[in-house]
Amino acid sequence: MKYKLTKETKEWCGITLHRIKALKDFNGISKGELGGWVEKEGNLSQEGDCWVFEDAKVYKNAKVCGNALVYGDAWVSENALVSGDARVYENAWVAGNAEVYGDARVCGDARVCGDARVCGDAEVAGNAEVYGDVRVSEDARVFGDAWVSGNAEVYGDATVYGNARVYGNAKVYENARVFGNAEVSGNATVYENAWVSGNAVVSGDARVYGDARIYDIILGYPMQWLNLTGFKFNITITLSYIRVGCKHIDIRDLVKITYESIKSEISCEREFILLKSQILCALDLLKLYKESQE
Question: Strand 165-166 relative to strand 183-184: parallel, antiparallel, unpaired?
Fold first, then answer.
């Protein structure tokens, strides 16, 4: 045995927890050193170099094993499993049937619960929440106030942060980024070096990839139109026309659009330059989608 439960106890959520004490030297832990808190011996394996430090807590049917470490004010509960070389620390918590393994990190005030899996070298940090049947793996990072839920997957070198939401069956992978107030949902995929940000909404079967930069755009499903938000008026784009506020413009006249011709519908010339750039990007997306369906 490498540790024992001491007689020092504390009440936590109606459960009596016991301070642990090392019975031998291992992995930088000295014999006689006090650790964190567990409800019972089954919460922390007697094998491997796993340990619970400081004021961290492991209870109910949760288990820490392998070389995993839980420390700070973190807690692991219910049926959660932390294994491998994983780390859960600061004020983070892992609950439900969630698993954190490999070299994964859960820290800050992050929450991982439900049937979520965080593995590989992935990190969930800040105030991020990961729940449902989510998979965050490889070198992916979810942080800030981001939420990833449902059956979503974030992997590769992808990052989801800010107030972003990724849910449903959505996938974000490779070097893609989703941030700001963006939402990616349904069966949508964001991959390669693409960015989705601002108030953008990507849903349905939409795909954003390459070096695309999508912000303040709503990708509709089926993807026959796009809405641009964040301007003075709502802007709708199709492959045949563009509507800016009440002004209807045939797509063939796109090259003729000038600031003077639509200045009543937008705020300033700078916004006009941004608008034309986003329209061209949106048209490219619509064309790519149409071609992929043919």
Answer: parallel
Per the domain annotation, does 27 fall within a domain? yes
pLDDT at 223: 47
Q: Are strands 165-166 and 15-22 parallel, antiparallel or unpaired?
A: unpaired
Check residue 30 and report its DSSP letter: P
Short-list 155, 277, 270, 141, CA closest to 216: 277
Long-range contacts of 205-214 (CB under 8 A, 24+ apart): 206/285, 206/289, 207/288, 207/289, 207/292, 208/176, 208/285, 209/176, 212/281, 212/284, 212/285, 213/281, 214/182, 214/281, 214/285
Burial track 58-95 (b if 16+ CB lie within 10 A, e otherwise): bbbebbbbbbbbbbbebbbbeebbbbbbbbbbbebbbb
| Contacts made by residues 165-169, CB under 8 angstroms, sequence distance 24+ | 167/132, 168/203
Q: Quick check: is 234 in a domain?
A: no
Q: For residue 23, what are the contacts with CB-CB under 8 A and spacing of at least 6?
A: 1, 2, 3, 4, 31
Residue 274 lies in a domain: no
**Alpha-carbon Rg of the chain, whole angstroms?**
25
Arithmetic mean of pLDDT, 230-254: 59
Please name the residues in contact with 213: beta carbons below 8 A apart, sequence gap of 6 or more: 194, 195, 197, 281
Confirm whether 157 is domain-assigned.
Answer: no
Looking at the DSSP bridge assignments, the partners of residue 219 are: 202, 226
Structural domain harbouring 75: 1-91
* Confidence (pTM): 0.78
Residue 236: which pLDDT band, with cuts at 50, 70 and 90? low
Number of independent structural domains in the chain: 1
> Do residues 153 and 117 make contact, with C-beta atoms less than 8 angstroms apart?
no
